[in-house]
Amino acid sequence: MKMNPAAKFSLFVLLSLVAVFLAGCTTTAPVDWNSRVGHYTYAQAVTELGQPSRQSKLSTGESVYKWPAQPNVGHGPNTGMSYYGSTGFTGNQTVGSTANNQMLQLTFDSNGVLSAWSKNY
Q1: pTM of the model
Q2: Which residues fall within 8 angstroms of residue 93, CB to CB, at 6 or more apart?
């Protein structure tokens, strides 16, 4: 049985969409922070996680840095259908909570090497 070119193209498109969908569903493995203690540096953390949102220096010479565990959830997609007061429509709606209390805390010794970590999520 021969397939016409339109059917072949449709099959190709369908298989491509399935492959893209499945690739989008993959998850990354969680970080094993215990294995990083003693050799992971602050510079590596900034490269991987970006700039910390909070930092403090301890009397022991260690530095504590905190990163949000997940990005803040704020404004949703622009639907253009949200009525705002008596002035008309607005495009943004708040979706979920805007506060993010889930933090990753990394403590680095005076040489900038990871000495402890914790998370509250």
Answers
A1: 0.56
A2: 75, 76, 79, 82
